[in-house]
């Protein structure tokens, strides 16, 4: 099936393009971007022009930043094409609710992806936690924004989510593996004096789970989730790719290697079954953190 | 049926107690509060003690501020009693989702009330808008926080919602009467230098609807919603109680006079039918405003 990719930036070139090149299900047939392009693939700057020129493109995958994403998503659904959304699926909850309703009306698939849920240890972690009682835990999600988002000022603008852009990956894993829903009880947000979005955050969840999110990590990067239960200790590290139970490594479930190849395989399966997949639990926790969070002003940040 | 009232502050004494006194459905059988009490009604400071002492109390109505409300709500549902929540129904979306799940498991009613939806002109406004296309509009919701929330510092703390405490009343009407879902596209939040929550906000919604919320209004108070449509102009004023179409007053639907008497009548009906009513659309818009909103620091505020 032919697919178009919109928003040809770092994540598209690093992950989406290679995943599509290796996919048995999809052929990248067009791109949409203001500046970026992919060698050998027709490039467009206007989404309606792209959709009109390529009626054979059945699906569009959006990697635009969250704020400009809605208009493109709406154009895709209005044209009756299937829609795949990079995380987070939108800038607001209400707009994703609107997209869900539009996709249902149009009879097409909408897939709000959470790539970290496809990391190698996550499915086995979920299986192991089922039926166990979580008694506490700690998320440590610390990375260097200058490395992963060089010069991307939008990430610190209002609606850009700041450190929750990576932090929502941790929350997407947490909400997927916990046997009961996560509930935020307190949050502290550190906002650089010259920015709108947080550069660090500390979150408290019911049941003794805490999260330490930081965008200023230099040297080794840390993407760890550790949970204590009534039946042992679970540790996911390397962004969900390494699972240890009571300090012993556990083999993941296998399946497709690579988060983005797994996402595109799932998209193909959803389209084939006429199904959709939109789980907003990670985004609800972020909205709750912005609503409930106590803000502190910290040192200005420049790339 | 016997009911208990928790959180005996200004809104409880101004609205809930008189509404219950006049209700043909309910008898106020106990109160829960740190300091407040109601003449002639048994008063408790501990919710579990109250529930244990009064197994005949079938429902509890919570008027506590949003942050401490969850623990009380959970205690009510754990005791298998019906639950009625003053707006907003919680400090976070995830906690209300959790309460919904708990109520469903316990087989009891949960009613997240929006008192402004019971204002006299709202049902007729909704009927008139059905089938019309809204082409623009303006919400003006300006009141004096010193008058309505004297000394209530919690309202400006993190999670207290600030000007969204009254503003969510406007949003509860808007989301109830609009023929299509409201979607926030931009927000500006004014935060006093010595506070955490906004004292004023300007919101933009898709379709040309704007909102001007302000907690610093002195003199006459303004609670107006004006909508332009392809079939005329609608104006709701006095907090939804006066409806005008093309500048001519329209009779409301009648029914029960008074927002709180109407809420308690609806609660009795929900319990009788074994039903629940939790519409989070107004709260989603507030969470979206906190997530997407651009913040500016304004003059300190003291009561």
UniProtKB/TrEMBL annotation, chains A, B:
Domain Gfo/Idh/MocA-like oxidoreductase N-terminal: 1-111
One Pfam family it belongs to: GFO_IDH_MocA
Domain of life (superkingdom): Bacteria
Gene Ontology molecular function: nucleotide binding
PANTHER family: BCDNA.GH03377, DEHYDROGENASE
Protein name: Gfo/Idh/MocA family oxidoreductase
């Amino acid at each position: 099936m032919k697919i178009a990719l919109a928003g040809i930036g770092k994540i598209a070139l690093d992950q989406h393009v290679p995943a599509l090149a290796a996919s048995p299900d999809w052929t990248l047939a067009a791109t949409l971007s203001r500046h970026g392009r992919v060698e050998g693939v027709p490039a467009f700057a206007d989404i309606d022009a792209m959709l009109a020129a390529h009626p054979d493109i059945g699906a569009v995958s959006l990697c635009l930043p969250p704020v400009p994403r809605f208009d493109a998503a709406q154009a895709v659904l209005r044209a009756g094409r299937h829609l795949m959304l990079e995380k987070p699926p939108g800038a607001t909850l209400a707009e994703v609710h609107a997209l869900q309703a539009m996709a249902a009306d149009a009879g097409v698939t909408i897939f709000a992806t959470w790539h970290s849920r496809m990391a190698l240890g996550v499915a086995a972690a979920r299986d192991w936690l089922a039926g166990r009682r979580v008694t506490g835990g700690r998320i440590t999600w610390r990375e260097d924004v200058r490395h992963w988002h060089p010069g991307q000022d939008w990430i610190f603008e209002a609606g850009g989510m700041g450190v929750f852009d990576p932090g929502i990956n941790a929350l997407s894993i947490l909400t997927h593996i916990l046997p009961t829903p996560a509930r935020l009880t307190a949050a502290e947000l550190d906002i650089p004096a010259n920015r709108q979005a947080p550069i660090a955050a500390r979150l408290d969840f019911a049941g003794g789970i805490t999260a330490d999110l930081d965008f200023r990590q230099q040297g080794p990067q840390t993407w760890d989730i550790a949970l204590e239960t009534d039946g042992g200790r679970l540790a996911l590290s390397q962004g969900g790719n390494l699972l240890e139970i009571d300090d012993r490594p556990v083999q993941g479930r296998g399946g497709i290697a690579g988060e983005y190849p797994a996402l595109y395989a799932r998209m193909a399966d959803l389209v084939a079954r006429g199904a959709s997949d939109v789980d907003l639990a990670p985004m609800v926790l972020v909205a709750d953190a912005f609503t409930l969070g106590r803000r502190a002003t910290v040192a200005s940040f420049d790339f």
